[in-house]
Hints:
heterodimer, A: two-stranded antiparallel sheet, B: mainly alpha, transmembrane helix (chain A)
Amino acid sequence: MTALVRHRLFWPAAVLLLLLAANVAFTPGFLSIEMKDGHLYGSLIDIFRFGAPLILVAIGMTLVIATGGIDLSVGSVVAISGALACLHISGLPDQNDVGGVLTAVGLALGLALVLGAWNGFLVAGIGIQPIIATLIIMVAGRGLAQLITDGQIVTVNSASYKLIGGGYWLTLPFSILIVLAVLALTAFLTRRLALGMLVESIGGNATASRLAGIRSRGLTVAVYAFCALCAGIAGLMISSNVSSADGNNAGLWIELDAILAVVIGGTSLMGGRFSLGGTVLGALVIQTLTTTIYSIGIPPETTLLFKALVVTVVCLVQSPAFREKVFQRRGRRRPAAPQATDDEKVEVPA
Amino acid sequence: MSSGILTSARLRLPGRLRSAYIPVLATAGLLAAMFVAGGVRYTGFASGQVVLNVFIDNAFLLVVAVGMTFVILTGGIDLSVGAVVALSTMVSASLMTDGGWPPLLVVPLVLLIGSALGLAMGCIIHYFDIQPFIVTLAGMFLARGLCYVIGTDSISITDPAYTAVAQARIALPGEMAVSVSVLIAVAVAGAAAYVLHYTRLGRNVYAIGGSEQSALLMGLPVARTKIAVYTISGFCSALGGVLFSLYTLSGYGLNALGMELDAIAAVVIGGTLLTGGSGYLAGTVLGVLVLGLIQTIISFEGTLSSWWTKIFIGLLLFAFILLQRLISARRA
């Protein structure tokens, strides 16, 4: 039992199960999944479907955080990629033309890669702190997205583009399949090959890993580019789901949700270690929370309050300092009661 | 992190102190250049009132950025400031308009709420050793959430005393005038500069930003100081919210969306290192003025759309970060 509780994914999984249980209690048919017109429908599918962009962004964010960095610019990249794709499609003579849509997707993802590589260059090449380096595109990128769309909301009417975020394939929403593909690829690259370990070594100590012969600079640039690519795909999904691009509001605050998902999943912001499974769990916790609030009938205005509560609780129970102070004090009180205060004084926060 | 600590330690070597001034001087130079360029290009730009208007339009941002400077100097970050500003406007507006409370009661209450929120976040950050980024993010969700609990619509403030203060203009020589908010903001900035540079609390803030472990081993009150900076930031955000409600005479849950980014940008453009331990409050004031002047120039230009503001701020951030990097690289 203790081994189970100590597992690093125990708490996020417990919170997710708790949320699902709350849903089942309020909505009896919550877990049922039905087949309609050859498509799978159900609340669980919806959680995955609406959470797909967040999961994607969070996967990219996990790798960036594993290198000891952080990427604040993903929300802007989401907006830019959606804006560029929609702008290109809206200019096509036939908006359903698959070749044209693929060009738009390629353009948007290409630009996302460039922006990510720029972030990586600032971090690894010039040595700027990640939080500031990515702050540049976070601020300027919103302006860039509005510049691309000329401040308007660009709407498109393209069935082939709609597939990315709102379509179905093999009975499943296409967005879920994209997420599964990206997740499988990332898991293969980082856990079957040495790449994941190299990324973690950069987060552990960038200089030491470079001295050990790891090309930490190139790898860091690649990780930021990958994160931006994930954000770019998420941007395509979001804009295709609503068939329009809003430079101002698309992907607003998704960087915060993504970082949150990563932290809830047990990846430390200090870097050096990461858990893809935890991140997916974290993103699902966030999305389930939103769904729960709607389905239980709590006024949507209070969504943020519940989010604040869950974030605080999850982060507190994962914090070693909190666990030491609250959970173990009971056990330790009798043998070492007078030393409790001494412990606090000597403790040096890293 | 380690390179940042080294950099800030070097910044305070006595013989090389002057290089620490370079980012602040660069910001001041940029501000002067922008003002001159604006004066040459547009008629009616080069007047004292234009400068004062920048102050009037950005008084709340100045106060918020002052609080953010304290937090960033310790190496932390406060993402909750924009939300606390919104919460303050919302609480003020709902209590005064719907509750009929007198402003003299509402304003202290609002300041208390902001400080209490900052205090709580500071305690969680310090005692439970959770990243400031995450804790203040939760604080941001909490404060925005509370706004929506109070109400989802904009509430206008009609209290006669409050509107009188909001509309009051204090005449200065040369047919110029400022609002009450500007006086408050300047007083806050002055008090903060005094605290940072001439008191024990200020030295502790710099010491923790330089190296928290060293500060702890030196016997400095790390816990008290860290909690104090978040409380100060909460207080400044609440005061910023009061000034914001004076400026717009309304409370709205979507007010000050993204103001945390403006505040962080102002602090960075003002030459403060985000790793902590190095920077000046004067730089933050200059940073706020640079941001304000960009908006003024864009409104004078007339044909440029509002999103160019963001692009310019991004470019400026890049230029200043590069400058700081070059300075610290040369020293290394």
